[in-house]
Amino acid sequence: MREFEFNLSMEELEKRTHKDYLMTKKMLKADAPEYLELADGDKEALKHLVKAANILEKINMQLDCHHNLEFKAFLDEEIAKGNKQAELTKILFDAQKGINAIDTMSNKINLAKGIVEMPGKGVYPEDLSKEEFHSILTKMLNDGKIEEVKKILTQRSVVERDGEYLKGIDYIDKFKEDFSKMADEIEKASEVSTNSDFNEYLKLQAEALRKADPMLDAYADKKWATLQDTPLEFTITRENYEDEMTGTIVENKELSELLEKYGISPIPKDFLGGRVGIVNKKGTEALMAIKKFLPVLAQNMPFCDEYEQNIKPGDIAPSPLAQEDNLDTSPALQAPSPQGEGKLQPKLKQTMVDVDLVAVTGDVGEYRGGITLAENLPNDDKLSLTIGGGRRNVYHRQIRFISDMKKLLERLDEILDKEQHKYYLDEADHWFTIGHENAHSLGPKKACETLGKYRNIIEENKADMGALAFVDLLTELGMYTQEQRKQIIVTTITDNFLKSKPTLSQAHRVRTVMQNKYFSERGAYDIIDGKIHVNIDKVVPIAKEMLAEIVRIQIEGDFEKAEKYVLDNFIWTDNMELIAQKLQKINKTLNGRTESELAAKLLEE
Question: How many helices (H) and strands (E) does the chain have?
Answer without folding.
Answer: 25, 15
